[in-house]
From TrEMBL:
Pfam families: Cactin_mid, CactinC_cactus. This is Splicing factor Cactin. Belongs to the CACTIN family. Residues 1-12 have a biased composition (Basic and acidic residues).
Length: 643
């Protein structure tokens, strides 16, 4: 047929060529016989015919090339089919079928997540999923009974597209709402942070301003002097009153002087001697701070260190009465104004003497208060800065030496062990052993070092014992919990059915054999199960509910007497078939004793999900008992649906 077409085309071309040659001859003969030459314009009809013929030839050539390309593809396809294997043929047909299904789904207007569904494979179990749903009652009500399938499919696509657009809009609105909410929350946190910053500063300033100052301690001290032993309690353990005036700044000294004046007026001269002594100490402290700040000259720099040592020797070993007599003598010496008298020296001596008198009187007052109130006061005596500390073993009248008193030299100077030479170490040890140096020695209050505290054995020793026991037990529990917390991930949480009860009574070391319940630290492993249904109805933004995927039990048996490892049993839950009870049992002291008048169930049990366990170590199963910890870790089996 193609050959016939070509022959037809050749015949038409030859006839047109003959017609053109004949016309050309006629025009030439007419030009030869005619007179002068006349130019003629080509007609519009001839131009249109020429263009139409050219376009027709172009389209015919294009169609011919298309047919040739199609023929080559067909031959290539037949060649590939002839050499392909059975597996390749099956894969080709499946791909063709899938492409056809995708095309049909696209024609139905399904979104991208539903493209892979078919009548045989869909989560809804619908064998006619690819066919448009026909709601005959609704169509009858709308007067569309005779609607065609194509128009019905078009209406279905429009509905799906409208629903998709609406869902996208809802999702965008939700994202925008979440973003606005997060921005508002961030702004609120920033605002609260700024407010809290100011509140923190105000609170710190408030506590600093309301903190107890020196006048508060001194006022409480005076109140203790007024009320006596009935008011003193363990919460009020005072130091010597002059110690509250140490480390005061210049402004603090000025404020303390004003506060002391107020208290002196309120008490109407009841404790003027006490307040006057405190004022002397405060004035001396204020002079020192003024010298440090450069506001006043230092009168002590005008006196050499040797002279200061002589002044200290004058004060050393004198009682208060002797110091007062010395003060009167110094005042008379200054008032005499003799010729050649060093006024600066005598004024410095007088100021130091008055401070010494005030400190000595305050020290005597504190000793009387400590003797009155017994061992409920802190007796602080400032030690002299000597190279070694000398302790005098004195025996007062009426005192009988106890069995732990020393029988050697009553006055013995103890030196630090690091100062002893290697060759004298053995001699010192032998001498200390002979003198009873390794036994507790009775000492008087006067020989106590600074910051020493007198305690009552009947009251304080049980406290120390209880605190040591409780602290040791607490450290062991913390060590067990640290071991159990290792490897805890974000998808795990602590699991405890029993409510934690604080320990009421302190456990003594003798109580370690009494029956008790073990402590535990359990974890539950939760997560998402991305099955086909959850993949269809949920996503990462809207995840499915979490389910329990396993447990990790850590039960502590630190005082287990029997080396037999603890055991666990599974008990069905009577009220709920989806759960079961796991009970842990161990030997004494973690079991009920029949010798006691009362019986207690010391086993621990927990309510867990009833599912099949993975007992492979590769799946995380663990059941061991070591270092006093019984560990039972397991995961639940995951079932996969297979057709």
């Amino acid at each position: 047929m193609e050959m016939a077409t070509k022959r037809g085309e050749g015949h038409s071309h030859s006839s047109s060529r003959k017609h053109k040659d004949k016309k050309h001859k006629e025009q030439k003969s007419s030009k030869h016989h005619s007179g002068p030459k006349v130019l003629e314009k080509p007609s519009s009809n001839n131009r249109e015919l020429t263009e139409a013929g050219a376009s027709k030839e172009f389209y015919e050539l294009l169609e011919k090339m298309r047919k040739q390309t199609k023929e080559r593809k067909r031959r290539r396809k037949e060649l590939l089919k002839s050499v392909e294997t059975a597996a390749e043929k099956r894969a080709r047909r499946l791909a063709k079928k899938k492409a056809k299904q995708l095309k049909h789904s696209f024609e139905l207007g399904w979104p991208g997540e539903y493209m892979g569904y078919s009548n045989d494979d869909n989560p809804y179990g619908d064998p006619e999923l690819t066919h448009p749903f026909v709601w005959e009652k609704k169509l009858e009500k709308e007067g569309l009974v005779n609607i065609s399938d194509a128009e019905l499919a078009s209406r279905s696509r429009q509905v799906l597209e409208a629903n998709r657009i609406q869902l996208e809009k809802i999702k965008m609105d939700r994202l925008m709402r979440d973003k606005l909410k997060s921005d508002a929350e961030m702004m609120r946190r920033d605002r609260d942070g700024q407010q809290n910053f100011h509140w923190t500063e105000q609170e710190a300033r408030f506590h600093l301003e309301q903190a107890p100052r020196a006048i508060d301690y001194l006022a409480a001290y005076v109140y203790c002097l007024m009320e006596g032993e009935d008011w003193v309690d363990d919460d009020y353990l005072f130091s010597e009153p002059q110690t509250y005036c140490e480390n005061l700044s210049l402004s603090d000294c000025e404020d303390l002087v004003e506060d002391i004046d107020v208290y002196k007026r309120l008490q109407e001269g009841a404790y003027d001697q006490f307040w006057n002594n405190i004022l002397v100490v405060v004035h001396d402290r204020r002079k020192q701070e003024a010298v440090k700040s450069g506001l006043a000259p230092d009168s002590r720099q005008a006196v050499s260190s040797a002279v200061m040592g002589d002044i200290e020797k004058i004060f050393e070993g004198k009682a208060v009465e002797q110091l007062i007599e010395l003060e009167a003598h110094v005042v008379a010496k200054i008032d005499s104004a003799e010729d050649g008298l060093d006024i600066a020296y005598w004024e410095l001596l007088l100021s130091l003497l008055r401070v010494r008198i005030a400190v000595t009187q305050l020290h005597q007052l504190h000793e009387k208060l400590a003797e009155t109130n017994g061992d409920r006061m802190i007796c602080q005596i400032k030690a002299e800065p000597t190279g070694g500390r000398e302790i005098k073993l004195e025996q007062g009248a009426g005192q009988t030496p106890g069995p732990s008193c020393s029988t050697g030299n009553p006055t013995r100077k103890f030196r630090p062990w690091s100062e002893l030479e290697n060759r004298t170490t053995d001699d010192e040890m032998i001498q200390a052993y002979r003198e009873g140096g390794y036994s507790p020695v009775y000492v008087s209050k006067d020989s106590l070092p600074a910051q020493a505290r007198i305690v009552r054995p009947k009251k304080e020793v049980p406290k120390f014992t209880e605190s040591n026991i409780s602290s040791a037990e607490k450290e062991s529990i913390e060590a067990f919990e640290n071991i159990a917390r290792k490897g805890m991930g974000e998808d795990e949480a602590t699991f405890a059915v029993e409510h934690p009860v604080e320990q009421q009574d302190v456990m003594r070391w003798s109580d370690r054999f009494l029956p008790r319940k073990p402590r535990y630290f359990n974890r539950v492993h939760t997560g998402f199960e991305w099955n086909k249904y959850n993949q269809t109805h949920y996503d990462l933004d809207n995840p499915p509910p979490k389910i329990v995927q396993g447990y990790k039990f850590n039960v502590f048996y630190p005082d287990l007497l029997d080396p037999t490892p603890p055991k666990f049993t599974i008990i069905p839950c009577k009220d709920d078939s989806d759960f079961c009870i796991i009970k842990f049992h161990a030997g004494p002291p973690y079991e009920a004793s029949c010798l006691l008048s009362y019986a207690t169930a010391n086993d621990v049990a927990f309510k867990i999900v009833k599912r099949e366990w993975e007992i492979s170590q590769k799946k995380g199963y663990r059941c061991i008992f070591q270092n006093g910890i019984f560990q039972l870790w397991f995961q639940f089996k995951k079932y996969r649906y297979r057709r």
